[in-house]
Amino acid sequence: MNTLTNVTPFVNEPFTDFSKEENKKAMEAAIAKVKAELGRVYPLHIGSKKVMTEAQIVSINPGDKDEVIGRVSKADQALAEEAMQVALQAFESWKRVPAAERADYLFKAAELMRQRKHEFSALMILESGKNYAEADADTAEAIDFIEFYAREMLRLSRTNETQPLTKIAGETNNLTYIPLGVGVVIPPWNFPLAICVGMTTAAVVSGNTVLLKPASTTPVIAHKFVALMEEVGLPAGVINYIPGSGAEVGDYLTTHPKTRFVSFTGSKEIGLRINRLAGETALGQIWIKRIVAEMGGKDGIVVDETADLQAAAQAIVASAFGFQGQKCSAGSRAFIVESVYDEVVEKVAELTKALQVGLPETNAPVGPVIDQGSYDKILNYIEIGKTEGKLLAGGGKAEGNGYYIEPTVFADVDGKARIMQEEIFGPVLAIGKAKDWKEAIALYNDTEFGLTGAFFSSDEERIEEALETMHCGNLYINRKCTGALVGVHPFGGFNMSGTDSKAGGYDYLLLFTQAKLTSRKN
């Protein structure tokens, strides 16, 4: 497809059905292919230069700690500065490339990624510990972001045709969305392809150049994306790949006077640090830096007595334990009205105990958490939970040569308990009892976060009230609180969940552009 001629309407990339033997075998073949390429050494990409460094980030398989995924060169401040200068130079020519041509690079990249879908997913299975469905959904979302943002840039470029300004005699007035400049993109490890791709392509298609600093636990899948963009002919210097320490490289670039924006997805603590550092005006800085931040959540599901209780229990378990609870949208809390509390809790415990923990490459329902730090933190929270609630399932380490933890459920947890208030980012679910549905919503709202939530009920008046009063960026009725689709569920949250950036929505590219009004006297 050529953007200069015709663009079809956006359609979400379909998920792969792994119950079909041919799809399962295709993924197994892709895993075998990726395994044959493990242990490679990857360079930095600074413009057209490929830079190997003595210092390296070693990426390991969290499901098999003895397996090295790759060794990635590590940038320091001097290399980060070199990358900044290259990006600044590249911006001067890239910003002049017409929107349709910029979009065309994305369309080509989406098609190539689609052709190699299982290969990208297989690498995530090994590097991040996702099972087949989770990795496949991640790759599909990456393709969706590329396709959606390409179309969005085309739409913005036609604003004066589709939404012309009010005409007055003797003047021609136009509004143009121009790029900001050089941006720092800091994606997370939990959606190491989708969010990395989405943040980067949104910035690039808008005409900006990027310094991409991937998560240190998942740098190889990020490199695979950068290599793909190079393959489709994206000009050198538009995306510069510079893995490195957050304290050294991340802080340096955040405070750099030439940094125009920082796009970040990760923890509340690091997001607030970036916001604080970026808020200080550096010597020579002539703009207010723009921050796009998605910082996590303490999401929950509310169930009243009129709900389909089996569906609610299934949604609670899927939301809590999908990808081991390592999603900012994960439903780590549930509030259930007392008249059906025991029944729902019993169903949740039963479903949780049925989950099998194992190696992601064998497509186990529950895999490892990402690294030693997460492993230790989650196990510590489980010990805290044992003092704050009634342990119903899990409660400790699981077997395997990786960072495996049992899916864990605590019941009878007070709304102010630590495991109800603090983001654990692991397979830990806290359940609380409410006297009625209104108290359940109040308990749900009692958090510093506000990303996703779900309300289960068959009462339309209550649903209307929940839609109005549950304070979160993404609220779902009678379905799980994870699984946002690009173009369908624009994603972003309130309060300490970030800047409500609404990734995958019609407002997103506005964050990477600035509107310029030109008025000409006829």
From TrEMBL:
It holds the Pfam family Aldedh. One of its GO terms (cellular component) is cytoplasmic side of plasma membrane. Keywords: NAD, Oxidoreductase. It catalyses: L-glutamate 5-semialdehyde + NAD(+) + H2O = L-glutamate + NADH + 2 H(+). It is an enzyme of class 1 (oxidoreductase). This is L-glutamate gamma-semialdehyde dehydrogenase. The keyword Secreted does not apply. Pathway: Amino-acid degradation; L-proline degradation into L-glutamate; L-glutamate from L-proline: step 2/2. It comes from Paenibacillus tianmuensis. The keyword Secreted does not apply. Transmembrane segments: none annotated. GO terms for molecular function: L-glutamate gamma-semialdehyde dehydrogenase activity; proline dehydrogenase activity. One of its GO terms (biological process) is L-proline catabolic process to L-glutamate. Residues 55-516 form the Aldehyde dehydrogenase domain. Belongs to the aldehyde dehydrogenase family. RocA subfamily. Its EC number is 1.2.1.88. NCBIfam families: D1pyr5carbox2 (TIGR01237), PRK03137.1 (NF002852). InterPro entries: Ald_DH/histidinol_DH (IPR016161), Ald_DH_C (IPR016163), Ald_DH_CS_CYS (IPR016160), Ald_DH_N (IPR016162), Aldehyde_DH_dom (IPR015590), Proline_metab_enzyme (IPR050485), RocA (IPR005932).
